[in-house]
Amino acid sequence: MPHLHSQYNPIAKVIHWLSALAVFTLFVVGYWMVDLNYYSEWYKIAPHWHKSIGLVLLAVTLFRIVWKLTHSSPEIEGASWEKFSAKIAHTLLYILLIAVFISGYLISTADGRGIEVFNWFTLPGLGSFFENQEDIAGEVHFYLTYSLIGLALLHALAALKHHFINKDNTLKKML
Amino acid sequence: MKKLVLISTIVSALALPTFANAADYKIDDKGAHASINFKVSHLGYSFIQGRFNTFSGDFSFDANNVEASKVAVTIDTSSLDSNHAERDKHIKSGDFINVGKYSTSTFVSTKVVKKSDGGLAISGDLTLHGVTKNVTLDALFIGEGNDPWGGYRAGFEATTRLELKDFNITVMGASSYVDMELHVEGIKQ
C-alpha cells in the first residue's frame, strides 16, 4: 500500500543518513589518501579503512535496495517534472553507488588478491578481467565518484529547495 | 616445373650469402622465452622483483663476428608487473614512470664490444620516461642451436643498473636505482 506514509520508515532513515555520512567520508579520505607520501604513517591504514568502509557500505546498500523494494516510501512531492527528475536522480544515485563499489573492488583485486575488511574477513578477489585493470578501474572509480558526489549535492540542494522554498514535506519525511 | 625449381634454387643461392653471416633473430616473446626483469630497493631493507610482460624485439648475431651484432627492443611500459596490482598502479602513475604519457620504452644498440672475459658490452640508447640515455648492458651469450620444433635459437642474458634520476624518475628513499636483468632467446628468421 504505497504513499500512505508521511515519513520514511526508521530503517530507511538510518541507512540514508549513514550512507550520506559514509559516502562523503569515503570521498574525502579517498581524495586525501591517493596523494599520501609513501613514508606517511597513514599510507597503509587510510586505504585499508577506505576499502573496509566502502565494502561494508556495499553490503548496506544491497540490503537498502532490497528494503526499498519491499517497503513502501512516502510520496515524492513537487511538480511532475520534479517527481520525474527525483525518480531518475534516486535511481542514478543507486547505480553510481554500485558502480563506484565495483570499480573500487576491481582496482584492489586486479592481481587476484582479496580485500581485507577491517581485519575481520577477506573478500576474495576475482582476478583480472581486462588489461591494465588497476589503472582503468582507478580512472573509472575517480570519475564515477565525482559524478556521485555531484549528484548527491544536487540531491541535497533539491531537498533544501523543497524545504525552504516550497515549504513541503520533502526533507522532513527523511528526518 | 623443373624450370621453376631451378629458378628457385638460383634465387635461394643468390639470397643465401646475405643471411649466412649475421643471422637475424626475433625475440621469442610469444613463447615467453624472454623476460625483462627489474629489481628495486624497498626501504633499503630488501628488494622488489618485477618485470615488463609485453615487449618485442629482434637482434642479429654471429658468434664469429660478435661486434657486428645489433639489438632493438620495444617495451610496453603499461605491462609492468610486480605481482601487486596496487603497487603496479602506483609505479605506472605520474609519481614514477608515467605510462599514460610514456607508454613505450625502447633500447637500440649502437655498439657491441667483446670483453676479455668473453662477455659482451652492449651499448645503446635507452629511452625511458621520455628521456634517452646511452646505457651499457653487461651481456653474456649463453648458447645457440636447433630447437626440437624445427627452429634455430640463440640466447643471452644481460644486466645493467639504471639510476632513476638519469631518467627524471622520482627517487624515493633508498630506491635510487633499478637493476635490470634480461633473459633473451631469439628464433632465427
Low-confidence stretches of chain A: none
The secondary structure category of chain B is: mainly beta
- Report the strand count of chain B: 11
User: H/E series of chain A, N to C?
Assistant: HHHEEH
Q: What's the shape of chain B?
A: elongated
Termini separation of chain A: 22 Å
Second rung of CATH, namely the architecture of chain B: Beta Barrel
Q: What is the architecture of chain A at the second tier of CATH? A: Up-down Bundle
| N-to-C CA distance of chain B | 27 Å
Indicate the mean pLDDT of chain A: 93
Helix content of chain B: 10-25%
- List the helices and strands of chain B in order: HEEEEEEHEEEEE
Number of strands of chain A: 2
Write out the CATH superfamily name of chain B: Lipid/polyisoprenoid-binding, YceI-like
Task: Fill in the CATH topology of chain B.
Answer: Lipocalin
Major sheet strand order of chain A: 1-2
